[in-house]
Amino acid sequence: MNTKKLDFDTQAEEILPKLIEWRRHFHKYPELSFQESHTSEKIIQVLRSFGLDHIQSGVGGYGIIATLSTGDGPVIGIRADIDALPILEQSSLEYVSQHQGIMHACGHDAHTAILLGVAKLLVENFEENSWRGTVKLIFQPAEESCDDNGETGAVKVLKSGILDDLDGVLALHMCPWRKRGSIQVHDGPSMANNDEFHLVIKGRGGHGGYPHKTLDPLWMATYVLQALYSLNGRKVDPLQVGTVSIGQIYGGEAHNIIPSTVSIKGTVRSYEGKIREQLAREVEQVCLMINALGGDYELSIQQGEPALVNDPSINKLFRKAGEGMEIFEEPFGMGSEDFSYMTAQIPGAMFFLGCGLEQERSLHHPSFDIDEKAMVDGVAIMMKSIENFFKG
C-alpha cells in the first residue's frame, strides 16, 4: 500500500500553492448572497479539472454539490459557504477585492478553497483506500443573508432534498482569534439563535417649541431603550446565555421638529430555546409601556438562524483528527451561522480553525485577513475526519 496516500498532512501541505491561488481568486472577486454566479462557475471549473463528473449546480440558488461514491455505505457531507459581505475592503494586498463595497471579511473564500482542496485529495485517495460510502461536497450559497421569505442558503439547499440521505455533516470556520496550530471545538449549543426586531413608536409630532402639544415618540424611546437594555442583566438567569442589542435608531428630520414616529431595530441572541422565547416575550412586554405613555406602536420579531448545536459524536472526529494541535473547548460566541439549519436535521458539527495573524483581524472587519497556511490544517483535518467517519 502506498503510505503517502494516507499521509493527509503531507498531501495537504503539497497543495498549499493551489489553496492560496483559489482563495485569493475568490477574495479578489467576491459576490454577495444570492449573486454568486461567477464564484459558482469557478468552483465547477476547478472540480472538473480533478476529473469529478457528478456535479449538481444551481442548488438553492448558486449552490453546488459534488459527489464521490464507492457504492453502499454511509453518506457524509462536507459544507463550505461561498458568499461575501457588503463591506468596503481597506487593504493594500495585491488580491484586494475588485468589487467595490463587497468583501470576503468572514473567511468564506478560505472555506471554499479548503473544500476544493478536500475534493482534490478525495479524488486522489478515494479508490486507494478501503472506504465504502459516499461523500457529498456542499458549496453553499447565501450564508450571510436571507431572501424575502426569510430563507438563507442552507434552508434552500436542504429543501432541494439532495442532502436527505446524509448520515453526518461537517463544516469549519476560520478563527482569527486563534493562531495556526489550534482548533476550537464545543459540544451542544455553540453559536446563537439570531432574532431581529423592528419597533416603530407612534406619537404625534409638532413644533419643538410647543412640546406640550405633541406626543413625543423620542421621549417615549428613552424609556423603551432603558427597559430593553435592562433585559440583559435583570430578566435572564445569569447562568443562561441571552442578550438584547440595539443596532439602529431613527427619528426626526429637523432640530426643531418633534417627529411623529421613531424606529428602533435590534437583535436578540440566545443559546437555549426557552431563553429565546422568554426574551421575545420580554421585548413585547417592554413595548406595552408605550401605551402607558400615551403612544402606540408596531412591533415585529423575525426569527433567524437557530442556535448551532454541535453533535458530540461528530466532534470526536475533529478531536481525533486534530491530535497534536492545541484544542480549545469553548463555545464560539454569540454570532450566528446558518449551518445550524443543517445540524438541526442531520448529526453534524462545526469547528473553528486557528488562522490568526500577529495583529488580529476580527471577522467582518474591513481589513480582515488570515494566515493562509492554516488552510493546510483545514484540509488535513477534514480528510482525517472523513476517513475516521467511514472507519467508524
Automatic annotation (TrEMBL):
Residues 196-286 form the Peptidase M20 dimerisation domain. Coiled coil: none annotated. Pfam families: M20_dimer, Peptidase_M20. InterPro entries: Amidohydrolase (IPR017439), Bact_exopeptidase_dim_dom (IPR036264), Peptidase_M20 (IPR002933), Peptidase_M20_dimer (IPR011650). Gene3D superfamilies: 3.30.70.360, Zn peptidases (3.40.630.10). NCBIfam families: amidohydrolases. This is M20 family metallopeptidase.
